[in-house]
Amino acid sequence: WIKPSFAWTLYRSGYGCKPGQPRILKIKLAHADIAHLLSNCKLINTKKEATKKGKTNPGRVQWDPERDLFQTDEREGRVQPRRMPRTRAIQIGLAQILSEYYVDHIISIEDVTDLAHKVAKAHRLKGDKATHAAMEDLRTELPNEQPYLPLLPLETLRNLALLPGPAADEVAQLGRWEDGQAD
């Protein structure tokens, strides 16, 4: 899976401390290569797709709640980047020939595990002010993430929920009112 959001990657990997996930890598691809990968993806609803059997698409896009690097939540005794339920982060799943294409087109790989551990240390400080101050000190080291719209046909962008349309409307409703409350 390609996870372009650093905060979401830290959440998912436990800041690079979960078993089997000891490294956080920043992988750079050309914009044209990202567009190629996305042009071969299908938007999925993970709850519906998890129950399907049979052949799956080699490229999948799903949208999960974004995470905030500057604020934390504590759930089940673990500190994690705060969940931002009204903002979504794209996840791009690759298999088969798309996975091979991805590997063959990597421009650079940078190990950012030390930065992940610094963020974890900041997040484990007591009090929002202390966490925020520590994160401000790290700001220049953090990735400069910006919205990105690949050069793809408008229909493809709409089908992947990258532009307004029925797919984006469906993504906006994901997770709402689960457990008796809105995201």
Q: Tell me about the biggest sheet?
A: 3 strands, mixed
Radius of gyration: 17 Å
What is the tally of helical segments? 8
The geometry reads as: globular
Give the % helix. 25-40%
Q: Tell me the strand percentage band.
A: 15-25%
Tell me what the structure shows.
With 183 residues, this protein is α+β, with helices and mostly antiparallel strands. It is 36% helix and 24% strand. The chain contains eight helices and five strands; from the N terminus they run αβαβαββαβαααα. Helix 5 runs antiparallel to helix 6 (128-138). The longest helix has 11 residues, at 113-123. The chain is globular. Mean pLDDT is 89; it is low at 177-183.
In short:
The chain contains 8 helices and 5 strands, in the order H-E-H-E-H-E-E-H-E-H-H-H-H. With 183 residues, the chain is of the alpha+beta class.
Please give the structural blueprint.
Elements: H1 6-13, E1 25-28, H2 31-39, E2 42-43, H3 46-49, E3 59-75, E4 78-94, H4 96-104, E5 108-111, H5 113-123, H6 128-138, H7 154-159, H8 166-173
Parallel strand pairs: 2-3
Antiparallel strand pairs: 1-5, 3-4
